[in-house]
Amino acid sequence: MPDTDPDPNSGPVPNSGTARRDGAGLFFAGGCPRSGLTVLRRLIEPHSRVHCGPDTGLPPSIAMQWQNFGRELGPLHARDFDLGAEDMRRTMAGLLTGMIGTPLDQPEVEMLVEKTTLNVAAFEPLARLLPQARFIHVVRDGRDVANSLLARDWRDPQGRPFPHVTDTAAAFKYWTDLTGIGLAAERRLQARICRVRYEDLVTRPKATVTALMTFLGLKFEPAQLHFAARTIALHGLELDSLPLINQPLTRRRAGAGAALDAQVSPATRQRLVELGYGAPAGTAAKRRRR
Q: CB–CB of 34/244 below 8 Å?
């Protein structure tokens, strides 16, 4: 049966092909790597109406490619192929949603959360490509992120370690740059984007997940806090989170990077303050024990 647009006077039809191509039911989660997106997946995935799988890497790649096509080849599309800007948007949107949207074909699934970390670098292009999609910006104390990055052995295609996993200053800059992109998207997308702090996920999981589910348009389900009893397959860089990912959420998960505080640059310090991170987690408790 051919895809047809719904009656404009009746509102969007969530399960129609057109609404799907515009991003209905799609949420893109992103944030600096090692900020807690796999923890987020563990807390979302048990919900009966949501699908949240591993990173696909597709959304930022396709959104950036579409943006580059428009910038470099837009006039050629219109002149030689009679493809206007909206035609190209629909085509690329259909490509992306066709590749990641299959779980929405299941009758019980209402929302799909795609959690590629570097979605954060493409929140704004994705918002233009998919005007009904919404976004989740996951943040974590940059000192803890840097501490975790420096424990990775991530390498480029030539086998060379990335600077942000070998050099503390580079790790802080990586976090500062990506959170800056995410904050710029928050200012521009406003009601379409929700910020989630890793520290809130691990110290106040029920309240934090309840607020997030409200943003998704769903109700919290108790099964979401009992994720350890539910087996899921981890893929790619998610495997770096083993075995901690199946352990209880506790306050001890925050503050591992406190020793790096003395190496924080002024730009990173400003970003820490902007995101609500003052002294490193655990500092006040240490002072009280002295």
A: no
271 burial class (0-12, 13-18, 19+ CB within 10 angstroms)? buried
Q: What is the pLDDT of residue 80?
A: 67
Task: Provide the pLDDT for residue 238.
Answer: 65
The burial class, CB within 10 Å (0-12 / 13-18 / 19+), for 71 is exposed
Whether 1 has a pLDDT exceeding 70, the answer reads: no
Mean pLDDT of the region 92-103: 94
The H-assigned helical ranges of the chain are: 17-21, 37-44, 58-81, 85-100, 123-129, 142-149, 168-189, 198-203, 205-216, 266-274, 283-289
Q: For residue 133, give both structure tokens.
A: 């999609």
Q: Please tell me the distance from the alpha carbon of residue 117 to that of residue 34, in angstroms, as a whole number.
A: 9
User: How high is the mean pLDDT of the chain?
Assistant: 86
In a domain, 232, yes or no: yes
Quote the pLDDT of residue 252. 79
Residue 63 lies in a domain: yes
286: in domain: no
Cα of 46 vs its chain's centroid, Å: 18
User: In the prediction, which pLDDT does 280 show?
Assistant: 73
Q: 75-109: buried (b, 16+ CB within 10 Å) or exposed (e) per residue?
A: eebeeeeebeeeebbbebbbbbbeebbebbeeeeb
The burial of 218, by beta-carbon neighbours within 10 Å (0-12 exposed, 13-18 middle, 19 or more buried), is given as middle
| Domain containing residue 94: CATH number | 3.40.50.300
Residue 57 has pLDDT above 50, yes or no: yes
Q: For Cα atoms 237, 242, 245, give the angle at the middle one, nearest 5 degrees.
A: 100
Over residues 253-279, mean pLDDT: 94
| Residues spanned by the domain of 66 | 17-140+193-252
